[in-house]
Amino acid sequence: MKLNAVTLAILGGCELGLCHNVQETGSLEDMWGQDWPFTGIQTFAHLPHERCLLNTDLEFDVGIIGVPFDTAVSFRPGARFGPEGIRRASQRQTSMRGFNFRAGINPYQNWAKVMDCGDIPVTPMDNHLALKMMGAAYDNLLGRNSSTEKSTLPPRLVSLGGDHSILLPILRSLHKVYGPVSVIHFDSHLDTWAPTKYPSYWHSEESEFTHGSMLWLAKQEGLLSESHNVHAGLRTRLSGTDWEDYDEDDEVGFHRIQCDEILDIGVDGMAQKILSFVPKDVPVYISVDIDVLDPSAAPGTGTMEVGGLLTRELISILRKLEDLNIVGADIVEVSPAYDHGDITSLAAAQVAYEIITSMVKKGPIESSIVERNKNQSSSEAPLLQDHIERPRKVLLGPHGQSLEALEREQVVFDSQISLL
Fold first, then answer.
1. β 254-258/156-161 pair status
2. Residue in 66, 26, 82 with CA at minimum distance from that of residue 336
3. What are the pLDDT digits (tens) for 339-362?
4. What residue stretch is flagged as signal peptide (predicted)?
């Protein structure tokens, strides 16, 4: 019998072990439980997903929460689609291939239960209501127990924005647990502007809440550490004809590291400078505006500034902060509509992974650190009512504003009560 070429090829392949002798006797988990990067429902890094806000009995140690809110921006919108974009870009991360060679651990296969908590369904119709919704959601998530028996503190949250204004409700909720926190703020902008800095005659309570004023508002409410906060990666233009923006930033309580400094002191120097401002025995919050990166690495954002950090520089700096007591973090201002090939979302997903790694590697936050921080801050942190009742000339600083400017500033302070 003559065999044709096709038959010979098949027989030869079988001899080489290429025939499909598939074994279908494994467990269902073994056979169907693992996804390819392009399969499955898009949760962050293919992590287990729960709508955590609907299940108040659910316990976890690190939760990823989306905050699709972007109606407090001053330039390009679109960050409401950031959580979806970051999750999409995280699909090549899995628990199977999650070992972080920089840190020496796999954060997804360790002591911590890490999960995707879905999104906060924030209204885009009313910023005042949105602020209340975000606050209620964070109070909910931070009002429960973590899953590990080694901790008496709530789970830690990594928030996917959304514009940077989401930081204000986060800090409010964190304050109820930890007291004032130290903020490490990676950004090209200060975000410590008083609301009246924005050049508009028209003013309302809602207009005070923006992605450039939330740290100023947080200071007025006593949510920030008095002196252990730092900006890293600054390079934006300033207001007016002098250094007034920096004077007011000093009053909010921030140290500043310009992006250009990395040319002289390098990655190690920038990380060490951050650590010189932030002690290891205080609760620390890391906030990453993706526009801290150069537009060549992160074009998909709302307020780009040229001359930023490279992605590898930011990652390397973050890795050097892993000994801090990180109680929460956010990655914000990702606007996928302006992205190219998902490179901005990919950078944001990697930043989230690095921060999660640091949280897990450090282990549970010690309750003694929190108690010491609360006791120390109780006599130092200014109360909102104190700010409102203090004389205008003290509240507004030495810059000699006009009477009209003073009156507008007073409106800002008076409205703080209604924002709470």
1. unpaired
2. 82
3. 999 999 999 999 999 999 999 999
4. 1-19
For residue 156, give the DSSP letter: E
Residue 83: pLDDT band with limits 50, 70, 90: very high
Helices and strands counted in the chain (H then E): 15, 8
Beta bridge partners of 156: 62
Residue among 156, 113, 114 at smallest CA distance from 138: 156
Tokens of 45: 């890094």
CA distances from 370 to 182, 320, 374, 412 (A): 12, 22, 6, 31
Q: Which two tokens stand for residue 30?
A: 């073994």
Please tell me the pTM assigned to this model. Answer: 0.85
SS3 224: strand
| Cβ neighbour number for residue 273 with a 10 Å cutoff | 16
- Tens digit of pLDDT for each residue in 109-136? 999 999 999 999 999 999 999 999 999 9
- 8 Å CB contact between 344 and 302: no
